[in-house]
Amino acid sequence: MCTNHSHHEHSHLHLPSSMVTRRSALRIGGIGIGAALLAACSKSNESAPTTSLTEATTTTTSAVVSTSAVVSTSAVISTLAGFEYFADSVKVVNNGNLWLVESNGLPAHNMMVGITSWQQQVPTSQPYTGTNAWQIPTNPVFADTPVSAKTQLYRGAIALAVNGVPIFNALNNRGDDAYLVGELDEWGGHAGRADDYHYHIAPLHLQEIVGNQSPIAYALDGYAIYGETEPDGSAVATLDEFNGHEMADGSYHYHGTRTYPYINGGLRGVVSVVEDQIDPQPSTRPFRPALEPLAGATISSFETPITGSYKLGYTVKAMTGEVAYMVTDSSVAFTFTNIDGTVTTATYARTI
Ligand SMILES: [Zn+2]
Ligand SMILES: [Zn+2]
Fold first, then answer.
1. Which of 12, 32, 214, 254 is most deeply packed, by most CB within 10 A?
2. Distance from the CA of 157 to the center of ligand 2, in angstroms?
C-alpha cells in the first residue's frame, strides 16, 4: 500500500519567514476577529483560546479604535454565503480586504471511516483562530497567470469548506489522486501529519445542508466553489480546466465534481505562492512526530463518546486495533490497543 502520504500538509508547519509575513498581514484582522468575538460574546468553540484574543487586543493598541468601529457596525454574523449554516462552530468577520474565518478544523460529521490507506494520524482540533485564522479575499481578482494545482501547490490548503475544514490539493506529493488510492474517508477527508483533519476532494455532502444557492467552499483566491448544480439549480455549464467558469455577469466560480479535479484545479484568482503553497494560510499544531503508513489497515469505526474524546477502530486482515485518545487544549493522551493485543499509552503536551 505504501501510499506515502508524506505530502503537502506538513510543510506549512515550519515556515518561519512566511509566519512573520502572515502575522504582520493578519494583525489588523486578528484584532478584528478577536474583538468581534468578544463583542458577539457568542459561544466560543473549543479552540478559540483566550490567548489569541488577548494577543489580538494587546499587540496594537492604536488600531483597536478603528477596528472596534468596524466591528460595532457589522453584525458580526457571516455574510459570506454558506458559512452561516455553521455559525455555531465557524466565525467569520470581514476586515475590508479579507474575510477572516476562525474554526477548529473539525467537522460536525463523522470522520476517518472508510480509509484503506492510513498513516496512523488522527483528527484533533486546530487553532485556526486570531492571527492564525483563514483569509479569503473579499474581492477576488483574476490572475494574469493562474496557478495550476496539477503540477504545484502540493502543500497546504487551496480552499476552505464552509464548515471550517480546509481542503488540500486532490493530488498528494507524488501526484497520486488521494481519493483513488484510498487515503480518504467517506466524507473526502483524513488526518494529516499534524493530526489535522482536511478534505482532498469537494465536500459535496455539504450541499444538503447549504442548498444549491450557497457555495460549499471557497478557494483561497476568494472565488466560491458550488456543488453539482448552478446556484439557481440548473445543470452545471461547461467548466474550464480548473473546474470553474465565468458567468454572463462576469463573475467567476468553481464547482465540486466527482472526478478529478474534484475541487478547484488551480487558482484562477490572484494568490501568492511561497514554497509551493498558498501564502499566507494558517499553521497547524503538531504535537508528535508524524507516523508511517500502517500496511493493510482499514479504518472501520470512529466515535466521539464525549467532546474531545475519540475512539478509532481499524482492522488489519482479521485483526482489530483501536486508538483511543483525549484531546484538550494542552495535551493529547493516547491508549493504543494494537492488533497483537498489546496496549500502550502515550501523552503529548500541546502548545500554541
Ligand atoms: Zn492530506
Ligand atoms: Zn457554475
1. 254
2. 22
Among all bound ligands, the one having the nearest atom to the CA of 185 is 1
Phi-psi region of 169 (alpha: psi -120 to 50; beta: other; left: phi over 0): beta
What is the distance in A from the centroid of ligand 1 to the CA of 10?
Answer: 9
Q: How far is the CA of 236 from the centre of ligand 2 (A)?
A: 5
Whole-angstrom distance, CA of residue 154 vs CA of residue 12 = 11
Query: Left, alpha or beta for 351 (phi > 0: left; psi -120 to 50: alpha)?
Result: beta
Give residue 181 CA to ligand 2 midpoint distance, Å.
28
Angle between helices 50-59 and 16-40 (to 10 degrees): 100
CA distances from 318 to 113, 311, 315, 340 (A): 17, 19, 6, 11
The CA distance from 24 to 19, in Å, is 9
161 versus 1: the higher-pLDDT residue is 161
**Ligand at shortest distance from the CA of 237:** 2
Record the pTM: 0.80
DSSP code at position 105: S
Detail the DSSP E strand segments found in the chain: 91-94, 98-102, 134-137, 142-148, 157-161, 166-168, 189-191, 197-199, 217-219, 224-226, 244-246, 252-255, 266-269, 272-274, 277-279, 297-303, 309-316, 319-327, 331-337, 343-349
Q: How far is the CA of 122 from the centre of ligand 1 (A)?
A: 11
How many Å lie between the centroid of ligand 2 and the Cα of residue 85? 21
Higher pLDDT, 70 or 272: 272
Report pLDDT digits (tens) over 15-34: 333 333 333 333 333 344 54
Q: Which ligand is nearest to the CA of 253?
A: 2
Q: How many angstroms separate the alpha carbon of residue 52 from the centre of ligand 1?
A: 26
My answer on whether omega of the bond before 280 falls inside 30° of 0, hence cis, is yes
Closest alpha carbon to 309 in 299, 324, 329, 323: 324
**What are the residue boundaries of the structural domains of the chain, listed by start?**
8-279, 297-349
- Ligand 2 centroid to Cα of residue 260, in Å, is 17
**Residues, Cβ < 5 Å to ion ligand 1:** 9, 192
